[in-house]
Amino acid sequence: MKAIQIKGPGEVALIEIEKPEIISGHVMLKMEFVGFCGSDLNTFTGLNPLAKKPIVPGHEIGARIHEVGEEVPSFLKPGMSVTVNPYTSCGKCPACNNLRPNACEFNQTLGVQRDGAMAEYLLVPWTKVVTEAAIRVDELALVEPLSVGFHERLSETTGGKGADVVIEAVGRPETYVAAISEAAFTGRVVYIGYAKEKIPFDTQYFVKKEFNIMGSLELLPLKRDRFRQ
Q1: Residues 93, 48, 118, 152, Cα dihedral to 10°
Q2: Taking burial as the number of CB atoms within 10 A of a residue's CB, which of 8, 81, 162, 186 is the most buried?
Q3: pTM
Q4: How far apart are CA 212 and CA 221, in angstroms?
Q5: Best CA proximity match to 212, nearest among 194, 185, 189
Q6: End-to-end Cα distance, the chain
């Protein structure tokens, strides 16, 4: 199959490599869209010290399932549009044991430490596949870079502490009540998105649990006193 390979700084080539064979617990993906990340650009220019050479770049993926191996859940079927979590985690290092698999000491990112998605086909564990029928396959290639931006913004909003609860369906009363019920005492709650109407805050939840709401419809910090009145 054809693939794009970065051979060294400023050197890229269209090459032929062997198509992977399906194995148990994995799915074969046929690539349709692959983003060119800033890290890929740094690999091309020689400014990415983590990247091996030569390397097939690409980890921002919009693809379709081509083939499904044994021991893969039945809900994953050929033809489904998917994206991929491009990172690995060992489950044993200090970061993984601290519930931070995204910071795994032995992470192997697609297109950086191991060959990535700029090829006709890609074999991945089914656990790394994310599918959403409501999102077009070209839009799925934007999920990973958007999630990186979301993570950075969430970290900035919460002073690096993260959130106990993140509410995305802003403006829906039932979503608010369900999410707040999961918030820890004095926890951090972050709203993501916009709503045409005011969020229906129930002050009894706010006063009883004394949680902090970080962010608002106007993307401004919310003052606790506003909800004690």
Answers
A1: 60
A2: 81
A3: 0.74
A4: 10
A5: 189
A6: 66
- CA separation (Å) from 52 to 55, 140, 202? 6, 26, 53
Which amino acid belongs to residue 190? Answer: V
User: E-assigned strands of the chain?
Assistant: 2-8, 11-16, 26-35, 60-68, 81-84, 121-125, 129-131, 165-167, 188-191, 212-214
- Max avg pLDDT among 166-170, 185-189, 220-224: 185-189
Domain 2-154 carries which CATH code?
Answer: 3.90.180.10
84 is written with which tokens? 């991929």
Residues in a beta bridge with 121 = 30
| 51-88 per-position pLDDT tens digit | 999 999 999 999 999 999 999 999 999 999 999 999 99
Residue found by looking up tokens 């890229």 in the block: 12
